[in-house]
From TrEMBL:
It comes from the Eukaryota. This is Uncharacterized protein.
Amino acid sequence: MKSQGLRLLDISRQMASASSQSSAQGISKGKEVVLPRLPSVQDFANASSSGMALAPLSIGQIHHTAVHICGLLAEQVTEDKLTTGPSLEIQLAKVTETSQGQNADTA
């Protein structure tokens, strides 16, 4: 269960990083799906099925999604945590998950 929380936190960080980079650079891809301020699962499903790119998410949207959809604690997805680089713990979790997946394939 802890590994799943770390994986979701890492995904949230990646989304925050991409969002802040895109908005800082003023990148607009033209036809993008813009989610509401407090997106729901249905909003993400509709965006996914549209076939269009998803507009960068704000820190608030990422925080809302992580807490209300993914079930993380609000303390796990603060703005500071979302905007910092990955920690050693997150990097180790990625390597461990990849190693486990490879072992399952060879067994």
